[in-house]
Amino acid sequence: MSRPTITLRELREKLDRGNPVTLVEILPPPRYREGHLPGAIYIPPIQVQELAPKRLPDKSAEIVVYCAGPG
């Protein structure tokens, strides 16, 4: 199943308009420490299934998940 995607520009527009968006970072720990989006909830990639239900209890929230690509 394909997941909807959002561009950085679309995300920035949502945030600038004040739309409620929950940002979730799933960067590997060293990359997260180097830099991440302000206000984002951190969930280590190997713990997404375990921690997401606890850290993201609002099932109706718009959630944008960010992860690092190869680099």
Q: How many individual helices?
A: 3
What CATH architecture would you give? 3-Layer(aba) Sandwich
Instruction: Work out the number of β strands.
Output: 3
Low-confidence stretches: none
Shape: globular
- How much helicity do the residues have? 25-40%
* Domain tally: 1
Indicate the radius of gyration in whole angstroms: 13 Å
Mean pLDDT score, rounded?
Answer: 83
How far apart lie the N and C ends?
A: 26 Å
State the secondary-structure class.
alpha/beta
CATH superfamily membership: Rhodanese-like domain
CATH topology grouping: Oxidized Rhodanese, domain 1
What sequence of helices (H) and strands (E) makes up the elements? Answer: HEHEHE
The CATH class is identified as: Alpha Beta
> What proportion strand?
5-15%
- Major β-sheet profile: 3 strands, parallel
Q: What can you see in these coordinates?
A:
- The protein is of the alpha/beta class and 71 residues long.
- The protein is built from three helices and three strands.
- The chain has a three-stranded parallel sheet, with no helix packed on it.
- Strand 1, helix 2 and strand 2 form a beta-alpha-beta unit.
- The longest helix is centred in the first third of the chain and has 10 residues, at 8-17.
- It starts with 7 loop residues before the first helix and ends in a 5-residue tail after the last strand.
- The mean pLDDT is 83.
